[in-house]
Amino acid sequence: MPVFLSGFALAEIGEPPPIKKLRFDEDYSYLRGIPWPRQWPDCWKYIPLGNSPDSYLTLGGEIRQRYEYTNNPTFGQSPQDSHGVWLQRYSLFGDLHWNRHLRFFGQLTSALETGRAAGPSPVDEDELEWQNAFFDLSSNDWSGGTATARIGRQEIVFGSGRIVDVREGPNVRRTFDGGRGFLITPNWRVDVVAARPREDRRGVFDDKTNDTQALWGIYSAMQNPLPYPGNLDLYYLGYENENSTYVQGTAHEDRHSLGARYWGEQDNWDWNWEALYQFGHFGSGKIRAWTLATETAYQWPDARWQPTLKLSVNIASGDNDPENSDLGTFNPIYPRGNYFSEAAVFGPRNFYNFHTFLYLQPTEPLALTVDLNFFWRLEKEDGLYSPSGQIVRSPDDSDAHFAATALSLTAEYTLCRGLVFTAIHTFGMPERFLRETGPSEDLNFTELTLQYRF
């Protein structure tokens, strides 16, 4: 195997940490004391900066090449790309640990797009920008845990990403400007956050803080706090948007979310259940909204290909009277971009669905997934929305609920540590609501991705 693909010499230096969605959560301090020379990329993961073992630099990055082709985008509603879209993402980061109390993490990212018929969307292209640029001040002896204050530009994920996520699927990941404090102990973690999202622009170092939106709140995660298996997250998140748009109209939105997430695994079972209630104001009206999301999976580890079957049942409220100033539409705030599939047509507002998954592992590097999604809108007076909150389809006096059926096939092959090839095809069939309210062609989405993270 070529040296640049050889990965870590596991037999010599032990097991490396997993490559994470948030690269600043990776800890390579286990490499201290390992003599040089080291293989790629070990040579960049722990660079001593002095005699102290707590003073070191970690370097890394990402190269992602993605080709997408959609036949009949948004079921024929959006412009047709002639030959598909080529999306490129490049990233380099440096993680400087000055000592055990002071740290700086900086990450530059370039996202490029070619071929979109309507031109690049805000999540397609950002030529060069700071994705992360923050300082950490930490105390390692605070009530049996580690307390950290983080200031600057930073990616944020809470829980499983249903409510706040970096938006990994699209080419441009989401990030925030602001402050975050967190306390971590062996059994629980508490985060306090006050931040505004970055306003993504297409040029070089031209992004700025989005002053029309804000996020604040507290998120706590507890390990096995109940007398039966499972972990519990409890949280409050506040959100403000000066120009929110729903079928009802556009107005100032001030929304508060109270949520609980119960998740874990035991024996061959795995579960992730979440409930959330929202209140606040939209213009002159009141907000009353809610959602319930469940994922339950069972694996047969001793069977051939180790099959896992997962059922996801979800529902989110919609608005039942657009003429009334009160708003009932749920807002997922800053969710993952590929919420239901990589095709990313619909988002979790005014809907209910049944989503089944079958996972197969024919060989250690190869994973296969088949999933089938039946998607309805909940309130017939409200429409359907994209993951970012844009109105995909207005109600147009249709009383139909059934909106779409989607079948996805995914193959993921890990060539070596950090290097993964993914092929996805999604077939979407419009159902009665889409057929009654506008273009309703069958959707076919193909994605080929080669991603190397080091």
TrEMBL record:
Transmembrane segments: none
A Pfam family annotated for this UniProt entry: Alginate_exp
Position of the signal peptide: none
Taxonomic superkingdom: Bacteria
Xref: InterPro entries: Alginate_export_dom, Alginate_Permeability_Chnl
SUPFAM superfamilies, per database record: Porins
Domain called Alginate export: residue spans: 56-415
Protein name: Alginate export domain-containing protein
